[in-house]
Design brief:
11 strands; 5-stranded mixed sheet; Immunoglobulin-like; alpha+beta; 28% helix
Length: 268
């Protein structure tokens, strides 16, 4: 097909007509826009905000959180030595010459876990030296106490629980209690059938306002979804928030990187 190139002697063009200066220009396609780099295709501002929140929250937590030992008493089990569902009229139960059935008494074993769940070891000089350290069982009478197991050989041989003569108090040695260490005690108690025994810690430890007493076997049986979500101290909730935030940041970063890489491959 021939193309006419107008000159000065040609008549004027009709309205809407197009002139072609160079016949080769008709076949030239427009040049594509320049390709964006990988870092230009994805905005990292949102991920940057999340990272700033995560590191800021962690810095705030480390600034506000005070490291200290955390001694906890947990009653892991309460087992009746003689659990008779149907009392027999001719049955008599004696313990050290005492008729338990005639006095409406019960013989129970308390399995007690003492642990340090804090961030620091409990050292000997952190106990109040003028006061005893240990626990009492009331109401009832403790007839025997012994150490059954521990995840620390030192603690198992140095905690040395002992009964106080004529008292319901069990004295513990003021030994080093390293973090994340625990010791199990079995305490044999005689008590009235109508009144179950309770545990009461005593003694003062520097930096510890109070020593909690927990019954995990009871809370697990009645634990609901709401209690699982809301239970825990402020520290626990802060740690949960930081963990979930870190997981969210990782998911967003991986997803964004994969999408940007796929877009770059397709563009090339």
């Amino acid at each position: 097909m021939s193309t006419h190139i107008p000159n000065s002697s040609d008549p004027p063009l009709a309205p809407g007509a197009r002139t072609i200066a160079n016949p080769a220009d008709e076949d030239v396609a427009p040049s594509p826009p320049p390709k964006k780099r990988l870092d230009e295709r994805f905005s990292w501002s949102f991920a940057g905000v999340l990272l700033a929140l995560g590191f800021g929250g962690f810095a705030l937590y480390t600034w506000l959180h005070t490291k200290q030992p955390e001694i906890t008493f947990e009653i892991e089990a309460e087992t009746d030595v003689l659990d008779l569902r149907t009392p027999l009229p001719d049955l008599t139960i004696f313990f050290k010459g005492e008729d338990l059935r005639a006095k409406d008494l019960n013989l129970r074993v308390l399995t007690i876990r003492i642990s340090n769940k804090g961030d620091l070891d409990l050292l000997e000089d952190q106990y109040e030296q003028r006061d005893d350290w240990g626990f009492s069982i009331r109401p009832g009478r403790v007839v025997n106490v012994r150490t059954t197991s521990s995840n620390s050989n030192y603690l198992e041989t140095h905690i040395n629980p002992r009964l106080t003569e004529g008292s319901d108090r069990i004295i513990l040695e003021k030994s080093i209690f390293e973090r994340q260490k625990w010791v199990l005690l079995d305490v044999l108690v005689i008590h009235s059938k109508s009144t179950p025994p309770e545990l009461f810690p005593f003694g003062k430890i520097a930096g510890v306002d109070s020593i909690p007493v927990l019954k995990p076997y009871l809370t697990k049986e009645h634990e609901t979804l709401r209690s699982r979500v809301t239970n825990g101290t402020l520290l626990v909730h802060c740690l949960r928030f930081l963990l979930y935030l870190a997981i969210l940041i990782a998911i967003i970063a991986i997803t964004a990187s994969s999408a940007a890489a796929a877009s770059w491959v397709i563009g090339n």
